[in-house]
Amino acid sequence: MSSCVRIGLIQASNDVDGNEPVHVHKEKAIEKHVKLVREAAEKGAQIICLQEIFYGPYFCTEQNPKWYDAAEEIPNGPTTSRFQALARELGAVIVLPIYEKEGIATYYNTAAVIDADGSYLGKYRKHHIPQVEVGTEGHGFWEKYYFKPGNLGYPVFDTAFAKIGVYICYDRHFPEGARLLGLGGAEIVFNPSATVAGLSEYLWKLEQPAHAVANGYYIAAINRVGVEAPWNMGEFYGQSYLCDPRGNLVAIGSRDKDEVIIGEMDKNLIREVRNTWQFFRDRRPETYQEIQALLP
């Protein structure tokens, strides 16, 4: 098997006003992303990742119970099943970030991982949940209204092409989980996001390349594009990218258009970098016990 794996990252705008019913958003966004996934596969992508909660707007801008209707079970929901069939058809791994419902009314921000034969490998639930006001209009990242913190740990999925981990959006500000994914054997970590200009854009190309360097793996960062009505909270600035273990951006998307970004990861480079920088060997976990002791 080749040491090189082609990665496809999909960034897209939301085409429907947030006042429309939930099912209208889902139907239109799913159709759009199916076409983009096919485009990625046509360009040779073997692992394809969509953006955070891809099948609608970033509804956490407001606090409105109507959006609970967007949630589905994983893996038994219709969207996961549809993309399982698509992955099987295309022979591509798909990282599918959707809004998850468990039981009657428990909700998570989740990504399902689907292997190239269409099999469901498992899911990652976002651990770190922000609650941040943006501007003066009452808009913000009101995620605690919609999501419980993840409770499934930091799994690494052994797919047909690479061992992958998932972090979701706000998770990227926390190095502890990024390290655990590396220790778990991840060769590439995907971070599907929804983030706007003005708050943390200056960190977008700083934090995640730092994670890649510190842990000796590739990072794939995905962000949506456009301004979403009716909230108009800010510009989702795209610039999805693939970063190598040296911190170099291998491929990067535009700021303002729907796009399939294709980049190549080389597993031999991971080995070369880890042989040079023996960060895992030189760790001193026995000296880090104060982290736990200092918890509030």
Describe this protein's structure.
- The protein has 296 residues and is an alpha/beta fold.
- The chain has one domain: Carbon-nitrogen hydrolase (Nitrilase/N-carbamoyl-D-aminoacid amidohydrolase).
- 24% of the residues lie in helices and 27% in strands.
- It contains seven helices and 16 strands.
- The strands form four sheets. Strands 5-4-3-2-1-16 form a six-stranded mixed beta sheet. It has a six-stranded mixed beta sheet with strand order 8-9-10-11-14-15, with helices on one face.
Key terms:
single chain; 296 residues; alpha/beta; Nitrilase/N-carbamoyl-D-aminoacid amidohydrolase; 6-stranded mixed beta sheet
How much is the radius of gyration in Å?
Answer: 18 Å
Any idea of the CATH topology? Nitrilase/N-carbamoyl-D-aminoacid amidohydrolase
Low-pLDDT runs: none
**Helix and strand pattern:** EHEHEEEEEEEHEHHEEEEEEHH
Helices, by number, come to 7
What is the CATH architecture annotation? 4-Layer Sandwich
| Cα end-to-end separation | 48 Å
Give me the count of strands.
16
Sheet of most strands: 6 strands, mixed
